[in-house]
Specification:
The complex is a heterodimer of chains A (228) and B (234). Chain A is mostly helical. Chain A is built from 8 helices and 2 strands. The longest helix of chain A is centred in the middle third of the chain and has 29 residues. Chain A is elongated. Chain B has a 5-stranded mixed beta sheet with strand order 2-1-10-5-6. Chain B is an alpha+beta fold. The chains are: A mainly alpha (228), B alpha+beta (234). At the A-B interface, helix 1, helix 2 and helix 7 of A face helix 1, helix 2 and strand 4 of B.
Chain lengths: 228, 234
């Protein structure tokens, strides 16, 4: 009987099917929401009451190229946007319910106690520390990023409702500073999602390509074992 | 390793291809009807879940009025009555006493004025004051029949029209406006009479009105029939 320690990392079950399904669904639906949103933006490419003053916006009075607009015209963009919002919100609620119900939120939600670990992780990335700090399913910086993007997702939904029904949900619209301000924040979520997506994909390929397979098959065979 | 690269190439290629295919796409014959079906569901949600017949839109001080509110009409030239003296506002359909009104008739009825924010489907908003008579007051005078569920508003702007749900039409802030910002309604904004409601998007507010017809069947609308949301409540 051998008691030798296995050197090869065993495949570990990483992601539940609900996580994988909602991950890819959210990606596709977000692409649809952003492209149809850029089509809607073209109808009035600025933020602020008619005749201004306008909010600071690098894209003021500029239409996005047709290649990144979905819908063809305003009504087309609106109909895509208001159709895809339902499955996207459904995916979000399903995912959050799974996190809450399974207890997996513990390995994902960034809490004050993760602060120290986040600093250690940052030191490692800045080469101020040689060894990779032990981590759970996600390292503290990942927790911070994933918690942040969930909050941004919630903000996208809330600012969306604030500009969808500014009279019926006037309290929500007021919470974001009014109709034009809510439009502005809703537009900002586009760039946060886009920035997140770019960094997320780069990190997957540069740091941990095995995590891509894990998000497809559910099994992880990479170099960052879970120490939880 | 190679199978992963192949997979990634496929993923990237597929993603790019679907994006290119999606450019400016309204869904085509396969998906567009589906999107319009969802839009009808959204109308139902807007009307039955998110709309309150008692909630009033916020009013603003007149100092916050927006200058230069844009003018929209669909005719090639601004619609203007050739003989204003013969203009009448006809109320018909499912009412006991169909009637017609002159502007003076309407101005003799109890008036409503408010300064509210206008929400355009394009995304702009502007504050103006509107003066008129509530649609509900006219419906009462004409004896609304219980079978009436919708209202159709017609104009002399190249047959522009809108269909409304009865609950939105009976909202206390839904008015037939004959004045704007302390002045008679200008031709640029629908003279002599237009529909106004701070609970709807701008394109639901028929300008250059000629008639209001109560119906049992749901009327469409100029933009609504081309794909814009029908309920369009804000």
């Amino acid at each position: 009987m051998s008691t030798a320690v296995r050197t090869e990392t065993p495949a570990a079950k990483r992601h539940h099917w609900i996580v994988r399904l909602t991950h890819w669904l959210s990606f596709l639906l977000l692409v649809g929401m952003i492209t149809s949103g850029l089509q809607i933006y073209a109808a009035y490419a600025k933020f602020g009451e008619r005749n201004g003053p306008y909010y600071v916006n690098a894209f003021q009075d500029r239409a996005f190229p047709e290649a990144v607009r979905l819908g063809g015209w305003l009504a087309g963009g609106i109909n895509w946007h208001f159709a895809l919002m339902w499955p996207l919100m459904f995916a979000g609620v399903l995912y959050l319910s799974y996190l809450a119900g399974s207890g997996e939120w513990r390995s994902l939600l960034f809490r004050p106690r993760d602060l120290r670990g986040a600093i250690e992780m940052q030191k490692y990335y800045l080469r101020l520390r040689k060894d990779h700090p032990p981590q759970g399913k996600h390292n503290p910086l990942q927790k911070l990023a994933y918690t942040f993007i969930i909050v941004v997702g919630a903000l996208a939904v809330l600012t969306g409702f604030a500009i969808y029904k500014p009279t019926q949900l006037s309290w929500l619209t007021a919470l974001f500073g009014g109709f034009q301000a809510a439009r502005y924040w809703h537009f900002w979520t586009v760039w946060i999602f886009t920035g997140f997506l770019i960094v997320h994909v780069i990190l997957v390929f540069v740091v941990d390509p095995a995590s891509l397979r894990a998000m497809i098959s559910g099994w992880y065979r990479g170099r960052f074992p879970n120490h939880d | 390793m190679t199978d992963r690269r192949a997979f990634l190439r496929l993923l990237a290629g597929g993603g790019a291809a679907s994006l290119v295919a999606a450019c400016g796409w309204d869904g085509g014959n396969a998906i567009r009807p589906l999107l319009l079906d969802v839009s009808r569901i959204n109308d139902w949600v807007g009307e039955k879940v998110l709309y309150s017949p008692r909630r009033l839109a916020r009013e603003y001080p007149i100092s916050e009025r927006t200058r230069g509110v844009p003018s929209y009409f669909i005719s090639p030239k601004m619609p203007v009555l050739t003989d204003p003296a013969t203009w009448r506002f006809q109320v018909g359909g499912l009412v006991r006493k169909p009637q017609s009104f002159t502007i003076e008739d309407l101005q003799r009825l109890p008036a409503t004025s408010y300064t509210v924010k206008h929400h355009c489907v394009e995304g702009w908003s502007a504050i103006s004051t509107w003066h008129g008579v509530p649609v509900s007051a006219i419906a009462e005078r004409c004896g609304l029949l219980p079978q009436a569920r919708y209202v159709r508003f017609d104009s002399f702007d190249s047959n522009y029209f809108n269909g409304w749900d009865l609950a939105s039409a009976m909202h206390p802030q839904t008015i037939l406006a004959y004045g704007m910002n302390d002045n008679p309604l200008p031709p640029t904004h629908g003279a002599p009479l237009r529909l106004y409601a701070p609970t709807k998007l701008g394109y639901k507010m028929t300008k250059y009105l000629v008639s209001m017809t109560f119906t049992a069947e749901r009327p469409g609308g100029f933009w609504e029939d081309q794909g814009y949301p029908w309920f369009a409540g804000v």
